[in-house]
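so my prof wants the structure for this chain in the tokens format not the other one, which i didnt know existed until like an hour ago. anyway here's the sequence
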Amino acid sequence: MATIQFIKQQDSLNLSSYSRKVLQDIMKKSGVSKVIITSTARTPAEQARIMYENIVKYGVDDQKKLYGGYGDKVIDVYAEYKDKNKSRSDIITAMQNKIVLLGPGKVSSHVADFKKLNVVDIAPGSMPTISQKRFEKTVETDSRIGRFFKPPKDPAYHLEIIQ
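here's what i got, hopefully its the right format
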């Protein structure tokens, strides 16, 4: 039995039945019995907060490797406001405003229309280490997955499932 758990209850509402089936198929094929989903669809405010926290944790240069040009512009807002000694709240608000200005789905797939694209982050540690390589190989060969990022590029298993 494939068990899908969620850190936040709201995330369970953002995962379509189609995406749930795709994940269960991947889990069954790779022999993974349980995964923990750490994130799905996000608001621009949530995206800004998460980007802020990851910049603080991993650094500007590291996060610029993760995002494309639009995300880099949001990261630049962090750097600019940090240099001006602005507060955490002010920096996150400025980052959120930049996300909205640029177009949320251009900054991160997490902020795209989840009725068209389900984005799922799975904690790698939610499955035994021995199962992780099988899981990765199964995801990489599943044609229903649009894009897939994994550590070290992304701290989570990041799967994009077109609806």
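also thought this was worth mentioning. The helical segments are 9-13, 17-30, 44-58, 60-66, 69-83, 88-102, 104-107, 129-140.
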